[in-house]
Design a protein that fits this description.
The protein is of the alpha/beta class. It has a single domain (2-162), classed as Ribonuclease H-like superfamily/Ribonuclease H (Nucleotidyltransferase, domain 5), CATH 3.30.420. It contains six helices and five strands; from the N terminus they run βββαβαβαααα. The protein has helices spanning 41-59, 75-94, 104-112, 119-129, 139-153, 156-162, and strands at residues 2-7, 12-21, 24-34, 63-68, 98-103. A five-stranded mixed beta sheet has the order 3-2-1-4-5.
């Protein structure tokens, strides 16, 4: 199974592709898709959609995993991340992919064994689990790889529960 993780964001949207074989996880791509903050919002969203569609078409994942966002404060950030998340979900479905989502706490628990792990702890485990030489930069790429690892490492029942398309 080949999974594309997406850490949604309007300025920087992280992506990370991971497969799982008999020898464990293997990261095959990671990076970010960016939009220009000087552009009007509709153009930024359209650009993000086009870039994600191209990425999904190129990588051909079986499943796309998007972080399920929960915010306690900063409504402005929540709105832009929510818009980017919606674009990621829509684009994945339009490209014919199965879609799943996990909260940050679920990803932390799956990757580190502790639901309140720090960002640094998650990044270090991503390096170990995916057998990378260093932490992917920017952090959005590492977060996206963690999403994919979370999905691939979940039990078949949990993976099915997380799927919604």
């Amino acid at each position: 199974m080949f999974v594309l993780g997406i850490d949604p964001g309007l300025s920087r949207c992280g992506y990370g592709c991971v497969s799982k074989g008999p020898d464990g996880f293997r990261a095959t791509a990671a990076g970010v898709v960016t939009t220009d903050p000087a552009e009007p919002l509709p153009r930024r969203l359209a650009g993000l959609r086009a870039d994600l569609a191209e990425l999904i078409s190129e990588l051909e994942p079986d499943t796309v995993v998007v972080e399920r966002i929960f915010f306690r404060s900063n409504a402005r950030t929540a709105m832009s991340v929510g818009q980017a998340s919606g674009i990621a979900l829509l684009t994945a479905v339009e490209q014919g992919c199965r879609v799943a989502w996990y909260t940050a706490a679920e990803v932390k628990l799956a990757v580190t064994g502790y639901g309140n792990a720090t960002k640094e702890q998650v990044q270090e485990m991503v390096v170990r689990l995916a057998r990378l030489e260093q932490v992917p930069r920017p952090p959005d790429a590492a977060d996206a790889l963690a999403l994919a690892i979370c999905h691939l490492g979940a039990s078949p029942w949990a993976r099915e529960k997380a799927l919604f398309a």
